[in-house]
């Protein structure tokens, strides 16, 4: 798989290169899992941010961050980390300020993965 | 006879972890997202090693440690932590883990740490002489020695005693002992108790320093008796 399709601005290309060296189609498998599982986590995070539920915020942000780190979605992982830290500190107003950035970055990553999976089939 | 497939078990609510570990090690994997699900399928798995996420959904993955350790006393447990903070690592190792690995999982590190743990288990298993207090069990000759003498025991008694000594004074579940001694053959509690009785007698014949403790309905452990103070 050509790692260059994942822009360095959004992705950790070293991570993707390392995964790509493993046998099989691991990167595609991980993209598939990301596409199938993270929209629900994202929705939970969005709802928690809107309802100012600090524990749900940091737990959902933590779960989303883990998935992002696994697949090398570095920028989205950074945003999640920030939200997780603010959620743990119960700074709910500050966490909400990240919502637009979170939405746009999640959309970038999800769309790219979906298009890669579609092109493959 | 039912054949169980050897596989690495991941206990994680993130499916990516299982795929990465499977791909990095080239071994079969099976994932469970809850401890209860794992225990319900315990009879159908033959774990090579466990990778347990410390953050298991809303639970702390470390709660699984005693359960896993009791059921599979010899199986390596590696805890997956989100950070390398000392506190988190200490908690994992104190809870009974053999090693830890930080997220995101690096394939090379997964393989290296797993290899180390498996070699450690192989090294321990290959030891011919197992010891606790003054008692020595020669697993090749099935000979039990202590301060008071030596006796020879049967193969099943030897496996039973070796399993208990190997678990280092931690509890070994009744069912786990049965599997170690008789494999997949179904045996009654009575059969196990008869063997335990024989092992207890053999221990008594050779030593006054160790005892097999029973936790009723749960399992057994071998323990050193406190030293007697001279009158």
Question: How many individual helices of chain A?
Answer: 6
Largest sheet of chain A: none
Following the backbone from N to C, one meets helices and strands of chain A in this order, namely HHHHHH
- Biggest sheet strand line-up of chain B: 2-1-3-6-7
What is the secondary structure topology, with strand pairs?
The complex is a heterodimer of chains A (121) and B (231).
Chain A: H1 13-20, H2 26-50, H3 54-71, H4 74-88, H5 92-96, H6 99-120
Helix pairs in contact in A: 2-3, 2-6, 3-4, 4-6
Chain B: E1 5-11, H1 15-25, E2 29-32, H2 35-40, E3 45-53, E4 55-56, E5 59-60, H3 65-71, E6 77-81, H4 86-94, E7 99-102, H5 107-126, E8 129-132, E9 135-138, E10 143-146, E11 149-152, H6 155-166, E12 172-173, H7 174-182, H8 189-206, E13 210-215, E14 219-224
Parallel strand pairs in B: 1-2, 1-3, 3-6, 6-7
Antiparallel strand pairs in B: 4-5, 8-9, 9-10, 10-11, 12-14, 13-14
Task: Walk me through what this model shows.
The complex is a heterodimer of chains A (121) and B (231). With 121 residues, chain A is mainly alpha-helical. Chain A contains six helices and no strands. In chain A, α2 (26-50) packs antiparallel against α6 (99-120), α3 (54-71) packs antiparallel against α4 (74-88) and α4 runs antiparallel to α6 (99-120). Chain A is elongated. Chain A starts with 12 loop residues before the first helix and ends with a helix. Chain B has 231 residues and is of the alpha/beta class. Chain B contains eight helices and 14 strands. In chain B, the strands form four sheets. A five-stranded parallel β-sheet of chain B has the order 2-1-3-6-7, with helices on both faces. Chain B has a four-stranded antiparallel β-sheet with strand order 8-9-10-11, covered by helices on one side. In chain B, α6 (155-166) crosses α7 (174-182). The longest helix of chain B has 20 residues, at 107-126. The model of chain B has no long low-confidence stretch (mean pLDDT 86). At the A-B interface, α1, α2 and α3 of A face α1 of B.
């Amino acid at each position: 798989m050509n790692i260059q399709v994942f822009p360095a601005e959004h992705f950790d290309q070293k991570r993707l290169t390392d995964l790509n060296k493993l046998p099989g189609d691991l990167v595609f498998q991980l993209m598939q899992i990301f596409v199938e599982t993270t929209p629900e986590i994202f929705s939970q995070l969005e709802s928690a941010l809107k309802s100012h539920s600090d524990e749900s915020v940091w737990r959902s942000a933590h779960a989303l961050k883990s998935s992002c780190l696994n697949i090398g979605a570095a920028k989205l992982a950074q945003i999640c980390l920030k939200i997780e830290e603010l959620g743990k500190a119960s700074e709910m107003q500050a966490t909400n300020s990240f919502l637009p950035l979170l939405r746009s970055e999640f959309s970038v990553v999800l769309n790219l993965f979906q298009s890669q999976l579609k092109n493959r089939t | 006879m039912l054949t169980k497939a050897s596989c690495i078990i991941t206990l994680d609510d993130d499916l990516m972890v299982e795929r990465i570990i499977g791909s990095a090690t080239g071994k079969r994997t099976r994932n469970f997202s809850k401890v209860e699900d794992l225990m319900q399928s315990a009879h159908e798995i033959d774990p090579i090693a466990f990778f347990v996420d410390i953050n298991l959904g809303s639970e702390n993955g470390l709660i699984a440690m005693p359960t896993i350790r009791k059921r599979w006393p010899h199986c390596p447990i590696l805890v997956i932590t989100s950070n390398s903070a000392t506190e988190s690592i200490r908690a994992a190792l104190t809870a009974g883990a053999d090693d830890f690995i930080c997220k995101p999982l690096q394939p090379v590190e997964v393989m290296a740490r797993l290899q180390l743990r498996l070699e450690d288990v192989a090294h321990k298993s290959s030891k011919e002489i197992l010891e606790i207090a003054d008692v020595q069990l020669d697993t090749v000759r099935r000979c039990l020695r202590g301060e008071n003498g030596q006796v020879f025991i049967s193969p099943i008694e030897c496996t039973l005693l070796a399993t208990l000594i190997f678990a280092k004074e931690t509890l070994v579940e009744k069912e786990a002992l049965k599997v170690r001694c008789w494999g997949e053959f179904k045996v009654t509690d009575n059969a196990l108790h008869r063997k335990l009785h024989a092992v207890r007698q053999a221990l008594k014949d050779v030593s006054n320093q160790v005892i097999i403790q029973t936790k009723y309905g749960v399992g057994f452990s071998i323990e050193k008796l406190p030293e007697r103070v001279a009158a």
